[in-house]
Specification:
The chain is an alpha+beta fold. The protein has three domains: 5-155, Jelly Rolls, CATH 2.60.120; 159-208; 216-271, Orthogonal Bundle (Arc Repressor Mutant, subunit A). It has ten helices and nine strands. The strands form two sheets. Strands 1-8-3-6-9 form a five-stranded antiparallel beta sheet, covered by helices on one side. A hairpin with a 2-residue loop joins strand 4 and strand 5. Helix 5 (185-191) crosses helix 6 (196-207). The longest helix has 20 residues, at 136-155. It starts with 8 loop residues before the first strand and ends with a helix.
């Protein structure tokens, strides 16, 4: 009897996050050299992949659990370069590392309903230090994502027609918003070819948040990162994350985070 994923531990080999160069493609030699599992998550762009079971589209929100001895050949849209987070890993019992033949991944291609959570967790994993040894919680986070992908595939059929179109449109809007935090909801709606009201309804259905609440949270999360990692002034940070009024930025930051930007930076520096 083959083991279940729930009973196994994850062993990370290496990880990364990239925006594919112009002209990028994945040829047959890549799959021939695969010696472990490789989890992919598409966070930007579009492309197409040919697998052993047929062709699939690549777009934000779609993931793949790839494994050796399968076909994976891909190319990206020339106008929309792919953005991919990836983690190479193996599985083990408490006693030993499993041979790849001892476990068949229960899902190969999947889509996540909570794409922002999935993406943010992978970003966190890929930014953790380590090359030969990784923090213990990195493996736990990756296992949680694998379990989520499996559960999603069991619960949901691939999104048909209109629902899939909405998910793809919102996924592209989220990518654009992360790269352009000052973008307005109206601009996001226009880029998605929706009316403002329709975009807001669809956005909340897909993400569970209103566009405004999501944008504010994203800006403040980015601001907290900059306050911690950069030497930019609070005014410069406010401008980078899309606030024209530094006073309003400071008030909203304190309202949502609980402390002022200056206090937040001071507290992190003293930690």
């Amino acid at each position: 009897m083959k083991p279940r994923l729930e009973s196994l531990d994850v062993v990370l080999n290496y990880k990364g996050r990239l925006r594919c160069d112009p002209g990028w493609c994945l040829d047959a030699q890549w799959a021939n050299g695969l010696r472990d599992y490789d989890l992919w998550y598409i966070w930007a762009g579009r492309g197409r992949m040919v697998t052993s079971t047929g062709p699939i589209d690549l777009y934000p929100g779609r993931g793949l659990w790839m494994r050796p001895d399968r076909r994976y050949e891909a190319e990206q849209d020339k106008r929309e370069r792919l953005g991919v987070s990836f983690v190479h890993f193996r599985l083990r019992t408490r006693q030993r590392l499993l041979a790849l033949s001892e476990f068949t991944p229960p899902v190969e291609v999947f889509e996540t309903r909570f794409s922002d959570h999935f993406n943010n967790t992978l970003v966190h994993i890929t930014r953790l230090p380590g090359r030969d040894e990784f923090p213990a919680h990195a493996a736990l986070l990756l296992k949680a994502l694998l379990l989520e992908a499996v559960e999603t595939s069991r619960r949901d059929e691939p999104a048909p027609g209109l629902e899939r179109h909405h998910r793809e449109a919102i996924a592209h809007a989220l990518v654009f918003l992360r790269e352009n935090p000052a973008a307005s909801v109206g601009e996001l709606a226009r880029r998605s070819s929706y009316s403002l009201d329709h975009f807001s309804r669809v956005f909340q259905q897909v993400t569970g948040e209103t566009p405004k609440d999501y944008a504010v949270r994203l800006r403040l999360e980015r601001a907290m990162t900059l306050l911690h990692d950069s030497s930019q002034t609070i005014g410069q940070i406010a401008d980078v994350v899309g606030y024209r009024d530094v006073g309003f930025f400071s008030r909203q930051f304190k309202q949502k985070v609980g402390v002022s930007p200056a206090h937040f930076r001071r507290r992190r520096q003293e930690a």
